[in-house]
Amino acid sequence: MKRAIVLSGGGSKGAYQIGFWKALKKLNIKYDIVTGSSVGALNGAFMTQNVYYKTYYNWNKGMDFSRLFGKDIINDFTTNDGKKEFIKVFGKDILQGGMDSFGLENILKKYIKPEKIKKSNIDFGLITFNLTTMKPIEITKHEIKDEEIVDYLMASATCFPAFKIKDINGEKFIDGGYYDNLPINLAIKMGATEVIAVDLRSISFKQEVKNKNIPITTIKPSKRLPSGLAFNKRIQRKLIKLGYNDTMKVLGKYDGHLFTFKPEQLNKNYNKYIDRFMYNFNFIFNNDKKSIIAELLNNTIYNKLINNKEELPNTFNEMIEYTGKIFKLDETKIYTINNYNSQLIKKLSYTSNLNTFAIEKIIKEKDFKNLLNTTFIIKHIYNKLKKRNIEQQIKGIRQLAIFFPREALSALYLYTIERNKKARN
Prior knowledge:
By secondary structure, the chain is an alpha/beta fold. It has helices at 15-26, 39-49, 52-61, 65-69, 80-95, 102-111, 114-119, 149-156, 184-189, 233-250, 265-285, 292-297, 302-307, 312-326, 337-350, 356-365, 375-386, 390-403, 405-424; strands spanning 3-7, 33-37, 123-130, 135-140, 166-168, 171-175, 194-198, 216-219, 260-261, 334-335.
């Protein structure tokens, strides 16, 4: 058996692949082949050398604009101000043939050791595109001269027109993502019988896998990542953590989707709260099945809770993670369920109360664009659930649930766990 690691391109998103590598080391997963495109080729070369700590150091230190291109932007690239500044600083370079990534080339010359790559027991291949011949180039370490390894790595990572075209022996090369950003076929040609691929979900071309008999495990970001031009230390450190968490989840060591939980924590939470939650749910939302409101609610996520018992655990967990997303819990942390629930309650307590008149005005005028933060809705419904005259609140809660079905479930979940906490005290 030969296991291949296949790494996609994605510019600064490549930090995510370092988290993936960290997970492989944690689980002692070995590999025989590495293929990559663009930044995946760069990380793949380091994986072939087996120099994790040096690679982690470089990404954690920050692959920022000044280090890679000799110019910096002060504002965060992910903001509008940052994008405007980027255009101001680098726009002329891009229009005149692309940014000069000499800083990246210097990093590769310092840390890439051709003799170490050649002697490694791990085979290595990359993808680039030859503009001179208009043909893709799939090339392995055995086919590249020692003195040209850095050149071919730079060629694979030359995201034209953002970066300057790479010249090798009089021929012009650009990013491998213009042909195949996830070179699984190359890995199979090199003898892979099993593939673990990291797809950064960047806009690019991908070739269909020709051999359907090869088992492929694909790691993808659980959330949308910032632009591949977001060369920012803070973002890259976050991506390393996300890459580690997502890999551990796909390989069955942690639970969750948007968030990461230690093993069995979600099952523990489900078993603890589902009966009380469904009792509250049926009391509030499912006690008048003939009403118009009931029919409207049945066309939302509520239908899953009422009619699909097999999917109930998944629906319940999706609701829990949605609540964390709305309250902006830290996506990089690895949670126990008690810690996660405590963070939710704390965030709820920090949320301001929105007055009833304002809520009713928004609903009446259907002016939902002015409700930028739905945590207010969750807090409002939660407060209604807490009132002693709950029977008198049900109609209002159900009306809100028509427009904010997920927020109503989040409020009900928070009410359920908080009531349980008070009952124990």
